[in-house]
Amino acid sequence: MPHNEIIKVDNLCFSYEEESPPLFPPLSFSLQKGTITLLKGPSGSGKSTILRCINGLYPRGHVESKLDGEITVFGKKVEDYPPGELAKHVGMVFQNPRHQWCMRTIREEVAFGLENIGIPREEMDLKIDEVLRLVGLTPFGNTLIDQLSGGYQQRLALACVLVMEPSILLLDEPTSQLDPYTRKKWIDLLLHLKNTLDLTILVVEHNTRDWLPISDQVISIGQQSPDSQVTFSPSLRKRSIGDEIIRLERVDFRYHKKAPLRIKDISASAKKGERIAIIGANGSGKSTVLSLLAGLRRPTKGDCYLELKGYQKWKETILHERLGFVFQNPDWQFVEDTVLEDALVSVATNPTLVEKGKEYLKNFGLGEMFYHHPLSLSEGQKKRLSVLTAILPNPTVLLLDEPTFGQDANTTAILWKTLEEYTEAGGTLICVTHDMEWVDAFFDRVWLIDQGSVIFNGAPRQLWKHKDLVEKCHLLPPKEKKDGDYHAELFVPC
Question: What InterPro entries does the record point to (predicted)?
Fold first, then answer.
């Protein structure tokens, strides 16, 4: 083994079932001590699987799978490490951080790993305090994890790994749910830790713009042919915007009677055919607002209206037919045993929509996965399936929470084209997103949320002029572009 070689991957192939073809061609690479390596490729190409092979989860955690080739960490084969031993050297942040929680509160979760290796209580408390400070979670130590936003859960996941002081970090889209400002600070923090602690980092990311300048090595897998790549430029066709279709009126919300207000006196509305982006810093209340609009939570005060009629006056089944909703965590969406059944769950008796659903699956890159279980998909594939399931019945209002999570440039473009067609046909789109480029080019209005309140409601181009709000809410406005430059800047093929 070369002096600085930490990890070596030699002719790695992996299949989830003995008889199925490998996810990727034989792959070989090595990681040097104190370097950052970026692993990129299309959604579903096997990037997350490679990380799980390196940290020993596969094939141990997937008994029907088959792994060929060899992976060594510090010169020792991964399969030769006793259970738990490899975790002392290799820390991993999962693409969906919810997959790694064991405890109820932030502080308990960070303590969990330290308790398992017998760290004394006084030393443990010092380590927890320091790592929570590093990731900006000090005020939230006793907060329940299931009340955290996706971005704050990503912070917690990194804290749980860092507190164990590994020499190798495997990061699976660690910044995908962070607001733009926090994402930049996050990457700066990782670069600082890499330099001060001599960490070796392997990161999977679709949004490579911030990572490429600091990466020592870039590995690409599953390349698409130029003919199969899709780009997206917002249509210049004038859309018809109708009357008000959905509204929040003087809405407050708290999780329980003794909890502080999470949402404070929000009044906002959207019209038929309109595109609304809900934006703001992590933890500002964006997903909570979306869940109130979806009727999944009841306001503590105030009311929600669809077509001028309060939600409580709608029959619940009809209300939820009119409101299409996609969770931030797609795992919560699935109710059937196969991809095809889940996609068609609400339209199974409509032959026209059944055929349309099958076409959607093919367009979304899921055509060969009809009979796979939804939970066996990659996170990006799950997200596309959840969007498809919500949009196929053609709801009056479509409510999406981070729909581009886990997507490569190609699948992002396909999603955006689908949403454009939906709104051009009269559908109303309300979407939580951190993608300011998309907000600027695609949406009619933004609701800027700060500490549970809407502090700006207007056109994106007007918001960028309010430098005080942009700075306060950790936004990074898009760079000025000439007409037609949008897709060229966004879609650099992986």
Answer: AAA+_ATPase, ABC_transporter-like_ATP-bd, ABC_transpr_CbiO/EcfA_su, ECF_ABC_transporter_ATP-bd, P-loop_NTPase
Q: How far is CA 201 from the centre of its chain?
A: 20
Contacts with 410 (C-beta within 8 Å, 6 or more apart), sequence order: 42, 43, 224, 228, 229, 230, 491, 493, 494
Q: What is the pLDDT, as a whole number, of residue 237?
A: 63
Cα(468)–Cα(479) distance, rounded to whole angstroms? Answer: 18
Range of the domain at 55: 5-220
7 compared with 59, residue with greater pLDDT: 7
Q: Answer yes or no: do 158 and 263 share one domain.
A: no
Domain annotation covers residue 421: yes
For the chain, counts of helices (H) and of strands (E): 15, 19
459: nearest Cα among 469, 472, 444, 447: 444
Q: Is the CB of residue 134 less than 8 Å from the CB of residue 98?
A: no
Residue 232: burial class (beta carbons within 10 Å; 0-12, 13-18, 19+): buried
The alpha carbons of the chain give a radius of gyration, in whole angstroms, of 23
Nearest alpha carbon to residue 252 among 235, 234, 267? 267
Cα–Cα dist 190/211, whole Å: 11
Report CA-CA distances (Å) from 86 to 82, 172, 294, 480: 7, 18, 43, 47
Do residue 247 and residue 154 come from a single domain? no
Q: How confident is the model at residue 490 (pLDDT cuts 50, 70, 90)?
A: very low
| Cα–Cα separations (whole angstroms), residue 263 to 145, 259, 284, 449 | 18, 11, 9, 9
What is the CATH classification number for the domain harbouring 250? 3.40.50.300
Element at 77 (helix H, strand E) = strand 76-77
pLDDT at 228 over 90: no
Domain assignment of residue 480, yes or no: no
Q: How far apart are CA 335 and CA 309, in angstroms?
A: 30
Task: For 19-49, write each residue's pLDDT tens digit.
Answer: 788 889 999 999 999 999 999 998 888 999 9
Q: Which residue has the tokens 């390349």?
A: 223
Task: Note whether residue 226 is domain-resident.
Answer: no
The one-letter amino acid at 423: T
Q: Could you give the number of structural domains in the chain?
A: 2
- How far apart, in whole angstroms, are the C-alpha atoms of residue 475 and residue 467? 10
Q: Is the pLDDT of residue 489 over 60?
A: no
Same-domain check for residues 177 and 284 = no
Determine the 3-state secondary structure of 408 from DSSP. Answer: coil
Strands 428-432 and 275-279: parallel
- 130 and 268 in one domain? no
Residue 441 domain flag? yes
Residues 296-310: what's their mean pLDDT?
96
